[in-house]
Input
Amino acid sequence: MARDTRSRSTPPGPSRSGTSSGSRAVARPLVRPERRARLLLAAVLALLVVFAGRLVQVQAVDASAVADRALADRMGLTTLVPAPRGEILDAGGQVLATSVERRDVVADPTIVDGYVREDDDDVVVAQGVDGAVTDLSALLGLEPDAVRAALTREGTRWSMVTRGITPELWDRVAALGVPGITSERRWSREYPGGRLAGNLLGYTGYADGHDDAGLGGVEAVMDEELRGVDGSQRVERGRMGQAIPMGESELVEPVPGGDVRLTIDRDLQWTAQERATTAREEAGAEWVAVVALEVGTGHVLALAESPSVDPNDFAAARPEELGSRAVSDIFEPGSTSKVITAAAALEEGVVDPLTPFVVPYRWEASNGQSFRDSHYHDVEHLTFAGVLGTSSNTGTVMAGELLSREQRHDYMERFGFGQSTGIELPGEARGILAQPEAWDGRQQFTVLFGQGVSVNALQAAEVFATVANDGVRVPPRLVAATVDADGTEHPAPQAPGVRAVSAETAQQVSTMLEGAVAEGTGGNAAVEGYRVAGKTGTAEAPDDRGGYSGYTSSFIGYAPAEDPEVVVAVIVQRPTNGYFGGQVAAPVFQDVMSYAMTSRGVTPSTEPARLYPQEW
Amino acid sequence: MSAARAAAATTGGRLVGRSGVRGAAGPGALARTASGRAPAARAVRPGAAASRSAAPSRRPEQRPAAEPRVRLLPPPPSSRRRLPFGVLCGVLVLASLLAVLSLNISLSHGAYHLHEVQARQQAAAEQRQALTETLERTSSPEELGRRAAGLGMVPAGAAGFVTLPDGTVVGEPVPAPEPPPAPEEAATDPADGQAAQDADEQVTDEQVTDEQADEEAQP
Output
């Protein structure tokens, strides 16, 4: 090439032929080729400089802007790739809530009529919009009219056909090859246990631009941990806007959310929930709550209630049923809180378990307020243990009168009344504990047996967990740990326990509570093979009009009494078929506690209980 | 052949000629130089350059011995040498094209394979999810309880514990209550199993006795 160029640029003839005009032929050939070559070189160099300059400009200076523009031309719009929400697990790692992939089927009505389906012999069996409607409605199990409406929608190229089909079904729909039928991926929240723990798990829905934001229960409280980071995708698209298979694609991988492991024991939760359901039916109660706590750690093993809600279909539930009544509904605890009075009187040294009391059916306080027991009885000679065992109101008030107002208030506070438990659930009601100065002449006595003060079921259970834990109150908790998407586990911080009463006092109260089950009102709560400590409660339930209507029946206790492992609280609100706690709630306690002991492999009690005498 | 010519033949006539001119620094030497293109020659005798320039090409071997100076020679005929070079270039170009082509083919082959494997992975992941869903649903306590009741199973009673190493039994194990009469029927109808379980729980409720004193009775 170079040789050719040069031979052309050098004039061929003059010097050799010598036939042209002499002066030009002699003078010019020496000069012109050189100059031409130089000019040419200069021109070529200049051109090269221009090219190189442009190259540098395009590749280096404007590179990103130009690349972006080119990419924008080729690539379609950015589509969201939703991140799966983390799972909610029970203490044993069993799945309570999970996210599954679902597809929304979308049609582009402008190109659906190109549909043709042939059988094996190349005979057309379905064609056009009619064929697409027939095939799709059969496969999706939808009304043909609904499918037709979606496929013939005017003035749009995005028409929703159906939502939330499984990926396998989508594969079969995609195999039809209907033009314009595409799917959009999304995650759907599933609760495989149905109603299992439904009230505390909560539910998800649309909020803050997310399809599955946590809206209730653990889903809402742990939303930050459960929620992932959505990714995005852009793919090279053809003229019709369809993704080009194997074309350029740009994917920002979504980051899945972390898991949350609860302290809930799935099987105990189910047992408690089943018993709550049957108890509510049998007693004709407004609601029933069953709480099980692990002694020492405050782990909530079960938080069951009836009526319950199925979070898979939370839209069908009544709004007031969506939360957890065990933390959001308050009631007057009644006799179960006589435990606090007993602990306070023992701790302050005003009585001991064997202090004799002469207990009448009706008793009048110095300010003229009179109190009576629930059943008529002649004057009884009871020890302080007997007062608690028979759940005597008059005896309790007689002992409690020895405490100052401030002391009464102080001990209720020490056992957690009037304070939020800090449980990881939304909408906790901390109950009502009025200041001692605000108590009227009657309330100062009624608080001694749990009227005129209100708590939620978890707070009521906490009192017994404190006694069972040698007088140290450990805040209850529901979340054991959070697990990152990469498997790193972060145990939830354990709040330190607070000593409410001395270990000695707790031990004395515990022995008195054993007596209440073995010889007192709580006989129905006895669990075969295990020593049970517990207390019945039957309180009048306050109504909306400031008076009282119906009862709150309860039984709260723990086992084995010599080395407590589990606290179970059963609260039955406004039963209509029987109302005594020992009659309505204690059998539920017996079943749930019996299951808890067996399933946790707790060895039966071997040492017989040494109870305080109830009479003198 | 002289050494100069041999040099000219191996390294190219023009280059050698020029170096010869520059090597002979004196004006006299310039005048004798055969090169018609040398700038120095032009400067001395511009008019004679044209006539002399033709001389060496016409009589290239007139005075080989008397003129030891290097002079410009025309490029040696190299057509025979160019041909293999051209062929080599062609072969190289062809080979590189083929290499690129085969690379592309194998790349797209890999892309197809990747696509296929990804599709299989996707299908497997979907199948796994579907199976997991089924498993989680069937292994939920409610479903297990229902199916166990359907098979005629009943909740166990109190359990006994064998302590090691002495082998004593702790607790008072009691045999489970009699299962419902017709497990086959119950197995087909879950509601039956549920009823049986309910009946079982009834036993505990019958033990209910009167509560003693457990209520505040306000006047």
User: Anything to note?
Assistant: The first helix of chain B runs from residue 3 to 11. The longest strand of chain B covers residues 161-162. Residues 1-57, 185-219 of chain B have pLDDT under 50 and may be disordered.
